[in-house]
Amino acid sequence: MEVLEIQLREALDRQAVTAKILEVVNSSIKDPQPVFNSIVEAGQALFPKSTVSIGLREDDKLILGAISGPEPAGVEAWRRRFPAPLHPETIHGHVILNGNTIDLPDVAAAQDQFRIGAGNFLASGFRAVTMVPISQGGQTVGALAVLRHSIGKLKREQFDILKTFASQANIALDNLHLLNQMREANETLANVSKQLAKYMPPQLYGSIIAGNQQAAIESRRRKLTIFFSDIVDFSEITDQLEAEELTSLLNEYLTEMSKIALQHGAYFDKFIGDAMMLYFGEPESLGAKEDAAACVRMAIDMQRSLNDLQTGWQRQGLIDRPFHARIGINTGYCTIGNFGSEDRMDYTAIGREVNLAARLETECDPGGILLAAETYSLVKDWLPAEEREPIPVKGFQNPVRTYAATKIYDGEARDSRIIHVEDEGYSLTVDPARISDENMRRLKAIVADLCE
What pTM did the predictor assign? Predict the structure, then answer.
């Protein structure tokens, strides 16, 4: 009866330490060290007269992962033997390099087989050793050892618990391995996503990431307010600038315009050199009136911002001629969706209303904003504008009525005292707060000469 009680108590002890290690495994997914420490401490508790250690492979060396023993001096003496070469004629090398379990009841009797490593065990006072491999991702990366001062093998149940401990170390290392793989995959995905986000509209990118947008050839009808812009005489400007200067200037312009577009909630359709196509009303719409208002306000902010950029470029000597943009805006029903092939597609809006917006841009005055009649009807309550001559457009039965926004720069003049006037054949922008006395005298002379 007493033997059965001892066996039962030992079984319960083994179960308790195993559960404790598993608890550490579950809570230490990012770091296997607490698991190693828990294993050697539990092993030393079950084998109180033995020293329990974990050796780990690091390239061609053996390092100590964790150790626990009954004598601090003995533990420290064994610790000093690491790192050590990982050689097949050492006991650790035999287990780790071959993935074999070994149980030596008498190390002295195995000196011929382990002529390099056995001496270290004997010199440290260990006469018997049992060692089982520890693996990660199917490869042996370490060994769990029970070192004893007396000759003899472990009992069967002791050997089984040792293998269980090794399995728990395997779980911890496999968890870390999987976590690292997931982290690397996530980092790669995040980097790719970050790069892809720069090549597509933020709304489309967000829709794809959220799973709301499928890569399928499909389309739908939506009422949009479409925006087109380009730089006046851009080809002539390019002939006057070096490639590096042109690239810098164009990127600065497009960056500033993109910031403004994002602030107003525009959908980026495409950049075509110096030209931009944007629209409002898809994938989210605030209503036709609000979409049109947001688009027109964005266009006004863009023209004002370009005016500031132009002044800076002239002062830096980058340009010696006006740098103006034309903007055309139209509102109407368009077909929007994925167009192309199953292998390559483009998410865009098409239809005669899109074509009209592009045509309005070509008919617009430099530095101006030209609206189609429907867009103007949605913003006329607050936007000063003058009607221009109707223009014939392919696909429209009658010439299209157009309206040019006026006083685009008035708000800017109130805010920063910049004076801007323009009409057919001339454009003048003056910042009285920043112009020097010499440049003011020169400006007066130029204006006087022109008036004469």
Answer: 0.54
